[in-house]
Amino acid sequence: MADLHMPLDVTRRELFFLMLGSLLQAVSGQIRYSVPEELPKGSFVGNIAKDLAMDLKQLSHGGIQLITEGRRQYFDLDFQNGHLCIHERVDREAICGRLLTCMLKLEILIQEQVKVYIAEIEIEDINDNAPTFKVEAVQLKILENTATGSRFLLPDAQDPDLEKNSLQTYQLSPNGHFTLDVQTAANGGKYVELILDRTLDREEAAFHDLILIATDGGNPVKSGTAHIRVVVEDVNDNAPVFSQSVYKVTAMENIPIDSLLLTVNATDVDEGINAEIMYTFRQASEKALNIFHLDPKTGEVRVKQNLDFEENTMYEMEIQARDGRGISGRANILVTVIDVNDNAPEIAVTSLTNAVSEDSPQGTAVALLRVADRDSGDNGKVWCSSSEKLPFRLEKTFDNYYSLVTDRYLDREIISAYNVTVIATDKGTPPLSTTTIIPLKILDKNDNPPTFQEKSYMSFITENTPPGTSVFTLKANDPDWEENSKITYSIIPDQVKYAPFSSYLSINSETGAIYALRSFDYEEFQEIHFLVKAQDGGSPPLSSNVTMILLILDQNDNSPQILYPSLPSDGSTGVELAPRSSEPGYLVTKVVAVDADSGQNGWLSYQLLKATEPGLFTIGLHTGEIRTARFLLDKDALKQSLVVLVKDNGQPPLSASVTVTVVLADSIPESLSDISSISAPADPESDLTFYLVVAVAFVSCLFFTFLLVLLALRLRKWRTSQLCESGSIHFNGVPVSQFVGIDGVRAFLQSYCHEVSLTSGSRKSQVLFLTNTLRAQQDSNKSEPFFPAEDSNMNQEGQAVGQVSLTLSYY
């Protein structure tokens, strides 16, 4: 099958025909085909190529175009063989409705020849629709006394097909009361009427279900149906009838008031108001009318007063049933009264103990009862019983007397009160009984000690809490009653850090609330264990103990303590050395601090608050290590003062600060020339400065003396020896850093070793004295400096050359 070509839209087709309007002079020809509706897609309609005498090669090049009216394309052209085929299912009733002739036009455009052919395709009707009713179910209401021959119009059926394929006739399902009459209207349409042939009886059949069938004349024949329900309406032609002519019933003389004796029932085969029945007494004695009540709607006969066998043994009454139209029926009622045991036994409590102790022995008498019955014979014989599963039982003493005694041991904590039910029953038929309830209260005995819900309790308190703070509240339970359950609380005496426990905690004897009598110090102790005693008010009293654990929570109440560098106390300056040749990251010194608090309150951080040259030094946030941040410059001051802040992580945080002095030097002579600019701390109690000045003066004098002697020896040999080349001054400094433990804290230690070469032309004697101070919180150690020296030599130019190695170690 060739590909299907959809029609061009309206706009493109109009433009196309406007362009070809001058070329197309007339329609070249007309073709007509006839096909039935509802053919499947692809069905053959006609051979366009043969009918128009066209060459199939011309078709294969797409030289032909189909143009259809409307938006839907029902036909398609096969370019392989020139056949016109069904493209979409054709429904004649949807296209043409009730028109007798249904014609579709198709324009065939031959583009090369510029010719247009008209193809008319007639759609033939087939029997593809069955007759249908607009209403599938119809209800007719007809009185049962309607005369025969009456007519009732029924709904029509519709069939969209034409002629013989449309509606032809109606039929009615077989029945014994109705027939059909089919009529033809002036316009040719058919309508149908229902005719009543036989009289209806609603009591015989209240409904008649009929099937109306509409058929057409197609091949095969199709039909549609409608359900006709005939409802027979009632006419009052029947009287009420009782189910029995005589109703017999027996009643015990002790039947309760308003009890149902019997229910009379009359039926009326009519319906509606014709079947609405009212019941009434027709003939009855005045006594019977006072004792019995007849419900006019339901027919229930009930007792209004007590029956008494000794007064009357039988009652006879006549009743009637009347429908809504006044027709009535009648029946009789016979009521026989039966004598019964209508006197119940009586119970009298002659002696009663309202309360009994829970420690009473088994068999203790609680109450004395007497029973009696006014009846005689078996109806007057009585036997007694008590409630089961209770710790009590009845014992018959003599004649009609019974004793209520304990059957087992009592426990007030399980059940504090009982309601003992005593039942007295006679031997009548049926037996009657009387019930009485004896209330008993169980008196308490102190047989339960106080108990705590937990074996131990734990509470928390923050250190430095003010005295009088509530720590915890203990609660003990005692299932006993009143004084036996009244609990007092106390703390069992103990020692805490060699101090009386009563100076730390107290407890409210009534509520069990524990209070702190003083502030606690977490650094002193972290928890307290003690026992709390709960004692009831019984006699003798009972008690129990529970362990209480009080945990002290740390608070940030201790500032950081700086261990190194410590504040000078002996006149030392606390000076650190940083050679000018140091590279960035050079470790100058380390600040060491501790905090007595714990947890995050003891976490320390270090911060550089102030510096002579900002940006020259950095400090580790958590290590406290002071390092150079860049290369040292000539313009940087010899003396650098650094203020270091040590802060903990508490809330609020606490802090401490220390000042660190760092000396920058490239050579010892240079540092000695400026050493006087370094001021010592103004501490009147420290002698370190004094000792340093004396040491420097002594070393200087010794050094100058050595130089003079060396110079004299060299001058003596100068005339006979060749002058030596003058030496150069050099300075090498190598810092060595290490950590030393002090009371568990790693402190920083730094020692320096320098080698010095001096010329005879120097006018100044320079010695660099470097100190590092390391102290614990209450101790400091010092060692004297020492100066090892090497031999001196003279050069050829008369200059004295001396090399001195100066090593200073200080701990």
Outline the structure in words.
The chain has 7 helices and 58 strands. It folds into 7 domains: 10-124, Sandwich (Immunoglobulin-like), CATH 2.60.40.60; 132-233, Immunoglobulin-like (Sandwich); 241-338, Immunoglobulin-like, CATH 2.60.40; 346-443, Cadherins (Immunoglobulin-like, Sandwich); 451-553, Cadherins (Immunoglobulin-like); 561-672, Cadherins (Immunoglobulin-like, Sandwich), CATH 2.60.40; 689-808, no CATH class. With 811 residues, the protein is mainly beta. Strands 54, 55, 56, 57 and 58 form a 5-stranded antiparallel beta sheet that branches. Strands 1-7-6-3 form a 4-stranded mixed beta sheet, with no helix packed on it. Strands 9-16-15-12 form a 4-stranded mixed beta sheet, with no helix packed on it.
| Low-pLDDT ranges | 1-28, 678-686, 722-811
What distance lies between the first and last C-alpha atoms, to the nearest angstrom? Answer: 111 Å
Structural class comes to mainly beta
The largest sheet, given as strand count, sense and whether it forms a barrel, is: 5 strands, antiparallel
Strand content range: 35-45%
Number of helices: 7
- Please tell me how large the radius of gyration is: 65 Å
Residues in helices, as a percent range: under 10%
Mean pLDDT: 77
Number of separate domains: 7
- Overall form: flat
Task: Give the tally of β-strands.
Answer: 58
Domain Cadherin: 27-133, 134-242, 243-347, 348-452, 453-562, 579-683
Organism: Gekko japonicus (Schlegel's Japanese gecko)
Subcellular location: Membrane
Transmembrane segments: 688-713
